[in-house]
């Protein structure tokens, strides 16, 4: 199912992007509260990452919620969930200015979560990804 949604977000025509985002993403975001299998949650987060990457500003209404999800899974997910959450966060941070403005308040918390993960996560992959993301939001 995740692959179908990822494929749809890649191939959907411009004229249908808003409708797709409005219909497909809220149930997916909501279901993440109840899914207990880490592999399934990671797949759902991958769908959200792909949607963010391909649908861009059509996800503006969901941007803050997506950042909160990414942070939640970075803090308390399995390794796959943490990596998927980091990808979602990267996609949000690499988005258009309107998305960045929408998530700007959450970037302070993001910096804290990324810093903690980059220093103490048991997974080297997670530490490296978080360190790279941290470099993007920490002033030089």
From TrEMBL:
This is ARM repeat superfamily protein. It comes from Brassica carinata (Ethiopian mustard).
